[in-house]
Amino acid sequence: MCGIAGVWRQGAEAVPAMLESIRHRGPDGGGIWRNEADGVTLGHRRLSILDHAGGAQPFAAGDDPDGGGYVLVYNGELYNHPELRAELERRGHVFRSSHSDTETVLHAYMEWGEDAPARFNGMFALAVWDKARRRLFLARDRFGEKPLFWTAHKDGFAFASEVQALFRWPLFSGRLHAANVQRYLAWGYCTADRTIFEGVHSLPAGSCLTLDLATGRRDIRRYWRFTLEPDEALGDADEGRLVEELRDLLVQAVRRRLASDVPLGVFLSGGVDSSAVLASMSRLLAPDRIHAFSVGFTEKSYDESAYAAEVARYFGVSHHIRTLDLESAQERVRRLLPRVGDPLGDASLLPTALLAEFTRENVTVALSGDGGDELFAGYDPFKALTPAMWYSRCMPRPLHQLLRRGMGLVPTSDANMSLDFKIRRFLRGLSYMRPLWLPVWMSPVEPAEMGDLFASPLPPEELYADQLATWERNRHLSLPEQAQAFFVEHYLSGDILVKTDRASMLSSLESRAVFLDNDIADFCRRLPFRFKRREGVSKYILKKALAGWLPESIINRPKKGFGIPLNLWLRSLPQPPFPQAHCPWMKPEGVRRRAEAQQRRRGDNRLFLWAWLALADSAFFHQGEKA
Questions:
Q1: Residue 623 has what pLDDT?
Q2: So what's the pLDDT on residue 331?
Q3: CA 87 – CA 301 distance, rounded (Å)
Q4: In terms of Cα–Cα distance, which of 236, 134, 207, 188 is closest to 544?
Q5: Which of 47, 62, 214, 419 could cysteine-pair with 1, CB 3.0–4.6 Å?
Q6: Contact 49, 264 (CB under 8 A)
């Protein structure tokens, strides 16, 4: 796993500093390549996982006399590179390295051009300099496991694995984008190509960007999107065959992700997804070769470590646990957030970062269960969809508003996913049109509250324009399928994978998501929804596949989620000073009221206050560096 950066035209002298700012992504080495004639500079920081000797970057190939006909900087792992390499060799390509996936990526581009990423099964962000065509080609993996940001100016273009690297480019202003800050607080993360900074874009998952150096023109296109196309011909008679197919796909996906020249382990929460990964690993490796890593909490309603320990004992693997308490959380939060780069309103970033740091003390690669909830419809909001439909049809609007006001008088519980929290969220979402239920249920700030925080609040249709586009694109789907499309396209790519990438790479740890294997994703795309949720059972087909592999107590236990005791911790964390100079379009009194209400237990503002803390400690920190 690595970090990449590059510049076209002005500002090439900043590339060493850009790379230094993301050294944590690649502490094992680095390199810079320049083409003075065309003004292209590519840089790379390396975390060595495969082929220590043959995978150094920037990687050049081609017939050009200076060795730079094609030059690649690449961050990721290509799990199907042995098959692609064999095909490329049959087509006449000659390889220098023994088993470097980096070289396979570049030769794939040389053979198939912009169509190459669609053939990749893996996680990646890459940039290729194509000298003959005088173009720079950028691409990102299907789900967006690996980040790639870019910015353009009339005098140049720059890209990098993390936003903070772009602050080192002299043509980048570093100013906040007022509307996107609102959108960030409405979602809890940045969606699609948006960031909170003016002129900075995230290349969307499953997309590529081509920069034509002759004209300066940029072309962005989507080469893949997770699109539900259920095969309704599949019926109950096919269940046994589907179970066996899924089992085979899980083992195959794990086998692909075991390729490594360094030690590896597995994140283990004790939930179904991570336990499925461990169960699949145990069918391929002896127990003494597997190390599982977990995080626990001193606050018992949030602690899942006992379940993780049960699964580890069942398979007889080495199990490592570290516990997070209030005191250590306070100390870690203010060290963590300034290093993240782009803010994330998901407080489970903190235990994920602790887990990654702890894991990196023992191994360099860890397998994860990320993506299982999205692909198999495992989240709790799926349960709320049917009651929500009945409620929205039957409940008069005045009575709904009265219920909301009444719930505002109920004391706030600090317990994990307490009943009062669920009811408040349920009523909140149902104050808006159906396509917005899910994002509002999960939002730090609902649209009706934006006027208390911003001088020019955006309407719901603009705050959630990305979700409305997803809904419109999937109008033919049922409401539960629409919910799954939301979770995959927005929550997975904008929150879950961002969290895991930033948390793991801060400790120079590579995380590999088993469920995001191309073949498992395609299996889930064509799977009718009744095989994902049936009669109140979530992840129906996955749990059927795990029968006999895992204890029933693990398969059937209620989902808990990787939550933290945020209400409790926030009362002990001082709020940052309001940075009026950076965001004059915000109302500091609105932030202050929410912080005071939280301290006095007169409201539940936990999600907003964390999102605000993340914004203040990351974005404003980097703005201070720019100044």
A1: 55
A2: 76
A3: 52
A4: 236
A5: 47
A6: no
The answer, yes or no, to whether residue 65 has pLDDT greater than 50, is no
Name the least confident of 51-65, 180-194, 526-540.
Answer: 51-65
Instruction: Show the beta-strand stretches assigned E in 386-519.
Output: 510-513
Q: How far apart are CA 542 and CA 520, in angstroms?
A: 11
Give the pair of three-digit tokens for residue 79.
């799990």
- Answer yes or no: pTM beyond 0.85: yes
Extract the tokens encoding 173: 């202003």
Classified as helix, coil or strand, 467 is: helix
SS3 512: strand
Average confidence (pLDDT) over 346-358: 92
pLDDT single digits (tens) 137-193: 999 999 999 999 999 999 999 999 999 999 999 999 889 999 999 999 999 999 999
Measure the CA angle with vertex 444, ends 586 and 582; round to 5°. 25
Q: Distance between CA atoms of 70 and 110, rounded to whole angstroms?
A: 8
Strand partners, 77: 123
- Residue 602 confidence class, pLDDT cut points 50, 70, 90: confident
Burial of 476 (0-12, 13-18, 19+ CB in 10 A): exposed
537: number of Cβ within 10 Å:
12
The mean per-residue pLDDT over the stretch 216-231 comes to: 97
pLDDT value of position 53: 56
Q: How far apart are CA 388 and CA 373, in angstroms?
A: 21
Nearest 5°: the CA angle 112, 117, 123 is: 150
Q: Report the candidate in 443, 550, 478, 559 with the shortest Cα–Cα distance to residue 184.
A: 443
Among candidate residues 562, 576, 583, 571, the one with its CA nearest the CA of residue 612: 576
Task: Decide: 468 and 112 in contact? Cβ < 8 Å.
Answer: no
The residues that bridge with 34 in the sheet, in sequence order, are 41
* E strand or H helix that includes residue 78: strand 70-78
Q: What is the amino acid identity at position 128?
A: V
Residue 371 tokens read as 């993506």
**CA–CA separation, 574 vs 200, rounded Å?**
30
Cα three-residue angle 198-204-207, rounded to 5 degrees:
130
Torsion sign over Cα 525, 528, 533, 539: negative
Q: What is the pLDDT of residue 620?
A: 61
Paired with 534 in beta bridges are: 537
